[in-house]
Design goal:
Largest sheet: 2 strands, antiparallel
Oligomer: single chain
Mean pLDDT: 85
Number of helices: 2
Structural class: alpha+beta
Radius of gyration: 15 Å
Order of helices and strands: EEEHHE
Number of domains: 1
Strand order of the largest sheet: 1-4
Number of strands: 4
Distance between the termini: 22 Å
Length: about 80
C-alpha cells in the first residue's frame, strides 16, 4: 500500500453491494449514458444527456426523492460479503 491507495470501512449492517445489477445505461451519441426512460424516472441528472462514461465524479441525481422511489421498486437486498 502507498499514499495513492484508499481503504474505506463502513458499517456492515448498512453497506455492501446489491444482490444483482440494475442496467441503467446504453451507448448513445457516442458515449455511455443513462437511458432516457430511466432519466425521466429519476427526475434527471446534473450532467448533459445522462453522460456516465468514465466519470471521475459520479453525476448528481437532481431529484433524490424521485430516484429513491424508482430504486425501491427493485426491492434489492444488500450483500455484506464478497465472493
Amino acid at each position: 500500500m502507498n499514499s495513492e491507495h484508499l481503504v474505506v470501512f463502513a458499517q456492515p449492517e448498512c453497506s455492501g453491494r446489491f444482490e444483482k445489477a440494475i442496467p441503467i445505461g446504453e451507448l448513445r451519441s457516442g458515449a455511455y449514458r443513462v437511458t432516457d426512460e430511466i432519466l425521466r424516472a429519476w427526475g434527471g441528472l446534473e450532467v448533459k444527456d445522462g453522460f456516465i462514461q468514465r466519470s471521475v465524479c459520479p453525476p448528481w441525481v437532481t431529484n433524490t426523492s424521485q430516484f429513491m422511489k424508482w430504486f425501491q421498486t427493485y426491492g434489492l437486498a444488500m450483500v455484506h460479503s464478497n465472493y
